Amino acid sequence: MLNALKQKLERNKLLAFAIAGIYYLLVVFPHEWVGKKVEKYLDIPLGRDNYNLLILLLSVLLILTIGTYSVKGLGQLPVKTRKFLLWLFTLLLACLIAAFKTIIVINIELIHVVQYAVMALLLFPILNNFRETLFWTTVLGVCDELYQYLVIAADKANYYDFNDVVINLLGASLGLLILRSRDVKAHVNYTKWIDSPASLAMLFGSVFLITGLLTGWISIWPSDSEEEGFVLFEFVKQKESGFWTSLPPNVKFHVMRPVEGFITVLILFNVFKNIGYKFATDEEKKNLNHG
Questions:
Q1: In 3-state terms, what secondary structure has residue 159?
Q2: Which residues lie closer than 8 Å to 119 by C-beta, 6 or more apart?
Q3: In the chain, where the domains are located
């Protein structure tokens, strides 16, 4: 089914762009409206504890369903690929559990995993490359959080939310692992880094960020001085004290600092970008050795 859908969207790029674009807008812009509706019809009537428990049970059910679907597909793959993907699935599950225990405030935030898994599924027929899809889906997640930080919660947010960026990236990785487990193939490969749009974007993004930090236009921490000049963007408006942040009634979570967030995103990206790695067959190795 995934292969057939991918091939249909691959043949009609305009339709694929339209579906992916509309979906992304629906993910980003109704944040506040959806949040209010969920609070009104689920959170308040059920109570926070029951609401969190319901979301957790639904999440576990969804994970089991996805896991079963993916494992069935793995049986059709070569042994090395199967073992490699099982290792990545296990690592992803461990990352999600760690995120659940540390950086997720309320269970409904697990919806980010679903949202960006679907986003990756929709972008893949356009980009036709696992690494590129993971990169650009992560970029869209970064822009989503930027919109919330600068627009939706401009008066309330004390920091740019790297917590959610990480969860978005894990969701994108899940979507690509599902594709790979069902033997959906990528048809675009970049032999040189300069040919890759993702590599060029990372290069220019790094130059922009470093230039901004050196000139003071971008600040990691809030300024202690009123004489520091114009600041275009602050990652943190107010420093958190200690490792854990507490919210009533009994919620504890960790807020990722900017440097910590950057490092975590880079590590996870460099691990899960290999989802599309293709192991050489015995025949290919033999031909390579003879050559």
A1: strand
A2: 20, 23, 24, 27, 137, 140, 141, 171, 172, 175
A3: 2-275
Which residues, 6+ apart, have CB-to-CB distance to 88 below 8 Å?
A: 173, 177, 271, 272, 274, 275
Phi, psi angles (nearest 5°) of residue 233: -150, 135
33 Cα distance to chain centroid: 22
Q: How far apart are CA 149 and CA 233, in angstroms?
A: 11
Q: Give Rg (Cα) of the chain.
A: 21
pTM of whole model > 0.85? yes
| SS3 (DSSP) at 252 | strand
Which segment of 42-46, 144-148, 163-167, 170-174 scores lowest on mean pLDDT?
42-46
What residues form DSSP beta bridges with 247?
251
Q: Is pLDDT above 70 for 280?
A: no
CA distances to 18, 121, 184, 200 from 1, in Å: 20, 12, 10, 33
Alpha-carbon distance values, 77 to 64, 180, 284 (Å): 21, 9, 17
Among 5-14, 189-198, 223-232, 272-281, the minimum mean pLDDT is found in 223-232
Q: How far from 279 is each of 20, 54, 255, 291, CA to CA, in Å? A: 30, 41, 38, 18
Amino acid 98: pLDDT: 96
Dump pLDDT digits (tens) for 151-169: 998 888 999 999 999 999 9
Residue 17: burial class (beta carbons within 10 Å; 0-12, 13-18, 19+): middle
What are the phi and psi torsion angles at 169 (to 5°)? -65, -40
pLDDT value of residue 194: 87
